[in-house]
């Protein structure tokens, strides 16, 4: 990170600061679960790009996820809440994209967007059943989940099928049992 930061500093001697470069650096801090560095980068982003509200909101989520990845769930919640409020933004729901061949006659894929707590798809039950089947299969093959990527505090193991749960959350929870 020191090398990356040095490269950015050098770049900025002749160029304007670049928001995307900072988001990449912040993402790297996430990959290394480095909360101190992530806050340092985030604060620099806030001072350099005060008008990038949507981007800073994404940065807030990344920093919050870093805290969660090291088990600091309360800090994650407080940071996320305070920064979102300070930015005056609302969090837009993220979407998970899944593709599959559909019933459209053309030779193309049909894309469906699923958001958290969305059971509006006519095949939700079948989709969740397939997620459960795939989860069981990868567990039988010896897959072990790295729970440091789970961004919510895990509760006691329970049934996989929960009403209104994101499919990828169900997979992560199942794999950490």
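Q: What amino acid sequence fits the structure above?
A:
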């Amino acid at each position: 990170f020191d090398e990356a930061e040095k490269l950015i500093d050098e770049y900025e001697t002749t160029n304007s600061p670049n928001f995307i470069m900072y988001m990449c650096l912040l993402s790297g801090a996430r990959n290394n679960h480095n909360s101190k560095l992530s806050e340092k980068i985030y604060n620099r982003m806030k001072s350099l790009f005060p008008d990038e509200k949507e981007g800073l909101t994404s940065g807030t989520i990344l920093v919050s996820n870093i805290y969660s990845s090291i088990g600091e769930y309360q800090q994650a919640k407080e940071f996320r809440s305070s920064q979102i409020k300070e930015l005056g933004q609302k969090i837009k729901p993220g979407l998970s994209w899944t593709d599959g061949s559909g019933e459209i006659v053309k030779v193309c894929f049909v894309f469906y967007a699923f958001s958290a707590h969305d059971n509006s798809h006519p095949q939700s039950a079948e989709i969740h059943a397939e997620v459960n089947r795939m989860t069981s299969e990868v567990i039988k093959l010896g897959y072990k989940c790295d729970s440091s990527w789970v961004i919510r505090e895990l509760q006691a193991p329970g049934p996989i099928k929960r009403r209104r749960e994101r499919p990828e959350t169900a997979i992560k929870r199942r794999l950490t049992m």
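Q: And what stands out in the fold?
A: Residues 95-175 form one domain.
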